[in-house]
Design a protein that fits this description.
The chain is an alpha/beta fold. It has 9 helices and 15 strands. Strands 3, 4, 5, 6, 7, 14 and 15 form a 7-stranded mixed beta sheet that branches. A 6-stranded parallel beta sheet has the order 10-9-8-11-12-13, sandwiched between helices. Helix 9 links the parallel strand 14 and strand 15.
């Protein structure tokens, strides 16, 4: 039987305009692109799952950030997992599955050093973009290296039903936290936090001021705040800190579309409580990845760590999946299946 010819064209999402405020569909375009022949040290990958993530909003702007912005008129990228169709690199063969950073398209020519093999027999492919991928690693690094959970800590997590937040609360409990509190944007998500993810308390931030609801859930204050939201949540958490508390800044999704970001008004409470405000970049902490795979993989295998995914099918629906994510309509990790 003759081999199937390799594709010479594919489709890729392009940034058409830099959004002002909330992105709209016309800011993006799905275009046909040529697929070049692979050079030495490269792979041709057929993407099977794509990740869409809140950080992408920052890349749509040309403001200085920790990562290069998308170029207007050029293909976008993101994390993906797919099957190797052709390899010109040692250690990779057709049929291997890899994660890489050229998502937002159906086919990708990938430099082999930027690809990582994954085993589809150990876990579903999509999990390598979520709980066993960058989002799970974000939660693990933020808690293990920066929050440094202590036995009995009270931990507050914003965006707790999201891909990162749902892992944070569970990992904190597994690391010895005494009480874990989460906020989410719907009553259904609040129920999910307490009934499936093991949160001790949770509240719907749309039902009233965050500070008041947090005070009810943690009347004695909090030792750790894992921030995925920013804004009102960050100010409320700063106001609830115990002595020597730790705040880990993971994301500020409430402010990504806001052109006039205003910081919390009570920063002085960090000094009053001698608390730490901590930030990190996952790519600078990858020495923890073997521990992450061992611990999180073991917890999943033992049924101690649960996760959910929201799956949207079709490359053509990728940007609608992203916009739905930013509207808070997903539960767990948002994945696009090709």
């Amino acid at each position: 039987m003759s081999e199937q010819p390799l594709p010479t064209t594919g489709r890729a999402w392009h940034l058409e305009n830099r959004p002002t405020g909330t992105p709209v569909p016309s800011d993006f375009a799905l275009r046909e692109v040529e697929i070049p022949a692979i050079d030495a040290g490269q792979l041709l990958v057929a993407n099977e799952y794509l990740s869409v993530d809140p950080y992408m909003r920052g890349r749509m702007s040309d403001k200085k950030s920790y990562i290069e912005p998308f170029e207007v008129g050029a293909p976008m990228d993101g994390t993906a997992v797919g099957r190797v169709l052709a390899s010109n690199a040692e250690g990779f063969a057709p049929g291997d599955y890899v994660t890489h950073f050229l998502g937002m398209r159906d086919y990708a020519v990938v430099d082999a050093p930027t690809a990582q093999k994954v085993d589809p027999n150990l876990a579903p492919l999509s999990t390598y973009l979520g709980v066993l991928g960058a989002t799970g690693l974000t939660a693990y690094i933020g808690l293990t290296r920066f929050a440094k959970i202590k036995e009995g800590d009270t931990v507050f997590v914003s965006g707790a039903a999201g891909a990162v937040g749902s892992a944070v609360g569970q990992i904190a409990k597994l690391q010895g936290a005494g009480r874990v509190i989460g906020s989410a944007g719907s009553d259904e998500k609040v129920k999910l936090l307490t009934e499936e993810y093991g949160y001790d308390a949770a509240f719907n931030y749309r039902n009233g001021p965050v500070a008041e609801q947090l005070a009810q859930a943690a009347p004695d204050g909090i030792d750790v705040y894992f921030d995925n939201v920013g804004g009102e949540h960050l100010e409320a958490a700063i106001g609830a800190l115990k002595l020597h508390a730790r705040i880990v800044l993971s994301g500020m999704v409430s402010q990504y579309n806001d052109e006039k970001v205003v910081g919390p008004r009570n920063l002085w409470n960090l000094a009053v409580t001698r608390s730490d405000l901590l930030t990190f970049m996952v790519t600078e902490e990858l020495d923890l990845q073997p521990d992450f795979v061992r611990d999180v993989g073991g917890w999943i295998g033992a049924g101690k760590l649960h996760f959910q995914e929201t799956v949207v099918e079709g490359l053509e629906n990728t940007m609608e999946a992203y916009l739905a994510l930013m509207r808070g309509e997903s539960v767990g990790k948002m994945i696009v299946k090709l």
